Structure formats: structure tokens, C-alpha cells
Q: What sequence folds into this?
């Protein structure tokens, strides 16, 4: 059994903020429903994930934000700066928006080495260049030593929607689910350099050398689908909580069930080794350059053709289908022939990956 | 002599981040010039203050962000939540943009009382309602106890520019400077509830009871000027570093000098008392509901008439003029007849006010 599925849901107290409230599971959903939704009710759906769609003087825009608190600041394959650019770019892309402008706000802890800041800012510049976005505005605050954690970056992004906006409400029974590539690299890369997780000991150092974060901009993949004329119903990047959380959220919002095929799921050799040794389920591991797309069933061949022409999604495969029965449920047909329910995580005991 | 003017500029080391890098003075400007500007060069001007102006499908938009790290979370007249809404609304208004949409990203520290979070989120809802903006998207992260400071909020804002965008480049010799009201309430309100600053002892508790933050949305004041047909060249809210920093920044950017009249400067009785007792200069104190407007000289009467019809700017007065000589310099004609240079602060030893 895998760790994510074998843990009973812990009781999350609601009188104080706990780490579970920042996870991808039930506790954070509870926080959203009891604290944020009652206050920001008018656009409550938009608070749950990714970006909001707004209209300005004839233009249809997407607007999104995310704070990046991943530790350590530097990890195999990237930095918190790459994440802060690509993560927000991807949230826009998942709305079907062409990413255009980013803001960047820094909360720096007194004592942060200037060299670290320079390296991360340079990584942000390079990531913005690769993603085709411009960082147009920013802010810097400094907090006293011991009141922060080196650096927190919050980016917001604005993009333009030139097609029908992608959203869970557009998903319907009969639609196909496509996953853009192999799973789990970002989560394992972060774990491989975190102290106290024991992965070094368990994996005997093998993981450090081989697994790099998959952080990358997803817009080129999305753009390829639009240009091929694919009717893209909904997309989600597979970040905190991984594929399992993304599918559960969409099944609940679109009020459908989703049936996926374990055979279609790819993980790299090193990620698979790490998962087996650590008893982790790649379904719940974070990715920063992977997404699922829900498309009309008839569009699967051209969606796959389009995705496979783009580097970041060259490993795209057909993953499963949307069903009418058992609404809200995600099920997985396993390699051994059985079928099991893929739950939402209760908490998030793993290190923060974004 | 006032504290701000009598301190020699401290040498700021550039190998590590210090609190001065987060202030409104020379150190933060140095950080911008040496770290951020080289990386984000294309739109470097926009990184210095307030918002960026971008064009999307025929619409002219302003886009801005700020992190709010003011301590304590609750202070006389407001909360960090009010600040996070009004501050970003005001940055948009200072571009001449009608504020429309906000994002809100929370970095919460494990152990934060849920009641504090609820109260602050409620304050944000109320402030957004009053300012006429909608919080359309958000994010929540939780960091381990000891890796944060209760709560950091980062808001970003998007607004629409329906007039000529206000910017320092539009300021020219002969223009008039208007200040929208009395100075220093926010700075003193924050200091009155900070431990270890000695203000309680010095002021014998008198300040706590009487000075409230001036946090408020400024768009109604700006809108009134536009509706009266005023040619608004440039505006700045008088936040970190106060009036002195705002005028110095504009004088340097527009390459003009600015001559202001001390007689025109108002401070409330309690703020004045606190400044005298603490040897502070209200020119450098933070405000969260005050701004300066640079307007064509001929427009002064109608600008003042328009501003005085709106609650937040009912105390608006003519403050001084823009000159050609001594470019980059800000001078103040004092009550006693002399003239002195108003410098940029070197650091920011006062508590963070935003």
C-alpha cells in the first residue's frame, strides 16, 4: 500500500492554522469553505484554483496569483525563482490564457545572502524570457531575522483569453482525459534535498543525482492544442497534491466521475525507485511542468499529435474518460485488473513544493 | 533638529540583505539599481514605484503589486487586511487607473489563531466593498512555526486607465503641487502599538487613544479631479518614507526641483505632539490615505474644489511649485523664513508600516 492511501484522515483543529491548511487536501478545502468563501463570496469559484476570468473594455483576461514558499531555495533542476515564474504562467495557461505580464513581490529575511537573491532574480529573468512574459511591476519588503524564511516570492499574472475559456464547468460525460507526461519529478527533486526526510539514507544517494524538477512553462503545449483546433474543455497543472488532487477537484466541480488507467501513467525510473523505497504514490506527488487536459473524445488524436510536437508535452498520453455514474468520484483501473478509488489527501505531510 | 534629518547616512553592506534594504531610502534604491534593474531591465521604470501600464486588446490597464508585512496585524484604525486592499487600490489610483480587480495571496504561519485570520479577511472584504473592487483570485500557503510572522498578505491589482496615465515624466516646471490632507497618522498609529519604541513612556499613553491610521481608498479623490477636467500630471501616495520620499523620487525622475511651503503642511494635534516628543519629522512618516498631485498651475482652483468635495481629501491644500533650477532637489520654505533641503532617508529604522 502507498503512504497517501493508507493514512487515515487526521482530525484538523480549526482554532489555529496548521500545516495541513496549506496542503492540497481536505483541511485546505475546509479553510477555503469556512473562512475565504464567506468573505469573498462573489467570485468564490475562482478562489479555489488557478485564475479568474475578467472582462475589460472588450478584452477577456485571466488574472491569477500564487505565493512560492518551497524550500530549499535551490533544488535539482531549478530555484524558487523559476517556480514563481513558471507556476503563475502555468496557472494562466490552464485558464486557456496566453500569459503576458507578471508582477513579482519579494518578502526577504534580514541576513539573506545577496548572492542568493541575485541568482534567483536571474533565474526569474531567464524563466520569463523562455515563457515569453514580461515582469512589469514589483515590490520588496524586508522582515527581521527569524520572522521569515530567506525569501518568499509572490507573483501575479495577467493573460489574454483568445479562445473559449477552459473551466471545469465545461467538462461533460464522454470527454477524454489526457496527461502531458511522466509524473513526480518535482516532488522527488525537492524531497531529495530536504533534510530529515531520510530519502538520502533510504535511496543511498541515488535520487539526488538523477531526478530534476520538471519546472517549465506549459503555454506552448496549450497553444499547440488550440492551433490544432482541439476543443479544450478544462486543464489543470498537477502541482500540490498531484494528479489525484487535480482530478478530484474537477470531478467534484464538474459533478462527473473520472475513470483513469494506471497503465497510461508514466514515471521515470528514478522517481519510481524513490516512490517504492519511500512508499509514496506518484499520483500525489507535485509536478511543475505537467498537466491534464479534458478534451472532446473525437479530438484525442489531434490533441495528442499537437502535444507531442512540443518538448514539454512530448510524453502526452490518453489517460481515461469522464463518466456520468458515481459523480464526484475518481477511480483507477490498476495494472492487476482491479479498480480503486483515488481519494483527496487529508493533509500534506510532505514538504512544500511550491 | 528632527531625527530623520540629523542622522548621518549609515553605510549599508551589500553582501547580505539588511532591514535598510526594505526601507524607503538610499539602500532600497541601491538594491533596485544593482539587483532588480539589471535583471528586469525592459520595464525598469515601472519597478521603482506603483504600477505598470500595459495594453491588452484595445484596453489600457494598470497592474501593480505589494506585500504587506506591517506589524502588529491589528492597530488603531485598521488591520493589515485593510492596508493590503487600500494600498494596492491606491497604487492603481496613483497611475490614474480606476481600480477593478484584486488578487490576494496569504503566507500564514503555523499557529496563527483562526480568529485573527477571520477578522483580517473580513476587514479585506469590507475594504474591497468600500473601494469598489472585487477580490477575484487568491492563494494560501502555510509555513512552519518560526518561519514567518503570523501573516504576510500580497495583493496585486488591475485597473483601467480612461485618461492620460499619470506619471513623473509628465511633470514640468511651473506645475503646482497639491497635498490631499494632514500627514503622519498611519506612522504614529503603528508606532503607538509597537513594543520597545518607548512612545508609550514618552507620550504617557496619550498617543494610543487619539491617533488612528488614515488607511482609506484614494480613487474617489482622483476621480473627482478627472471629472472636474483637471490635467493631472502625476500622483503619489505618501506611504513608506512619507512626503519627503515621494517628492524626492518624483524630482529625480522628472529631473526638476520641487519647492514646498511648510506653512501648507498640516499635522493633527496628537501627531504633532508625538513628533515633538519623539523627535520625528512628519515629512518622513508613513500615510495610507494621503497623496500629492502634480497639476497644471491653472488647474489648482478646480483641483482643490474637486478634492474638497470628497471625504478622504477634504483637507487638500496647495503645497508648492515645480522649478527648473537645482534639478533633482526638494526644498522646504520653513515657517521661520529659511529654506532647507529635504533629503531622501538613508535607511528606515522605524517599524514597517505597510
A:
Amino acid at each position: 500500500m502507498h503512504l497517501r492511501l493508507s493514512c487515515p484522515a487526521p482530525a484538523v483543529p480549526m482554532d489555529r492554522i496548521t500545516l495541513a491548511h496549506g496542503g492540497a487536501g481536505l483541511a485546505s478545502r475546509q479553510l477555503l469553505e469556512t473562512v475565504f468563501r464567506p468573505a469573498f463570496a462573489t467570485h468564490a469559484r475562482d478562489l479555489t484554483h488557478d485564475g479568474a476570468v475578467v472582462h475589460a473594455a472588450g478584452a477577456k483576461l485571466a488574472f491569477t496569483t500564487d505565493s512560492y514558499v518551497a524550500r530549499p531555495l535551490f533544488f535539482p533542476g531549478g530555484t524558487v525563482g523559476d517556480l514563481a515564474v513558471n507556476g503563475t504562467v502555468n496557472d494562466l495557461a490552464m485558464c486557456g490564457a496566453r500569459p503576458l505580464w507578471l508582477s513579482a513581490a519579494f518578502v526577504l529575511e534580514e541576513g539573506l545572502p545577496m548572492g542568493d537573491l541575485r541568482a534567483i532574480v536571474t533565474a526569474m529573468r531567464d524563466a520569463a524570457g523562455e515563457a515569453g512574459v514580461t515582469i512589469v511591476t514589483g515590490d520588496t519588503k524586508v522582515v527581521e531575522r527569524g520572522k521569515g524564511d530567506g525569501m518568499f516570492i509572490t507573483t501575479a499574472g495577467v493573460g489574454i483569453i483568445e479562445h473559449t475559456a477552459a473551466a471545469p464547468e465545461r467538462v461533460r460525460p464522454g470527454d477524454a482525459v489526457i496527461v502531458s507526461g511522466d509524473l513526480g519529478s518535482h516532488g522527488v527533486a525537492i524531497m531529495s534535498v530536504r533534510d530529515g526526510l531520510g530519502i538520502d539514507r533510504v535511496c543511498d544517494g541515488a535520487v539526488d543525482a538523477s531526478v530534476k524538477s520538471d519546472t517549465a512553462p506549459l503555454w506552448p503545449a496549450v497553444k499547440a492544442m488550440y492551433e490544432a483546433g482541439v476543443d479544450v474543455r478544462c486543464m489543470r497543472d498537477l502541482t500540490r497534491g498531484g494528479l489525484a488532487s487535480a482530478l478530484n477537484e474537477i470531478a467534484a466541480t464538474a459533478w462527473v466521475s473520472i475513470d483513469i488507467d494506471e497503465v497510461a501513467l508514466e514515471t521515470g525510473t528514478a522517481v519510481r525507485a524513490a516512490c517504492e523505497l519511500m512508499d509514496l504514490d506518484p499520483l500525489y506527488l507535485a509536478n511543475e511542468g505537467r498537466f491534464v487536459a479534458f478534451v472532446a473524445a473525437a479530438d484525442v488524436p489531434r490533441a495528442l499529435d499537437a502535444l507531442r510536437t512540443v518538448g514539454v508535452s512530448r510524453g502526452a498520453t490518453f489517460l481515461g474518460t469522464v463518466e456520468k455514474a458515481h459523480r464526484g468520484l475518481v477511480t483507477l483501473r490498476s495494472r492487476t485488473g482491479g479498480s480503486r478509488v483515488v481519494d483527496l489527501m487529508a493533509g500534506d505531510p510532505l514538504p512544500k513544493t511550491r
User: Anything to note?
Assistant: Residues 132 and 154 of chain B are 19 Å apart (CA to CA). DSSP finds twelve helices and 14 strands in chain B. The longest strand of chain B covers residues 97-109. Chain B touches chain A through 79 residues (CB under 8 Å).
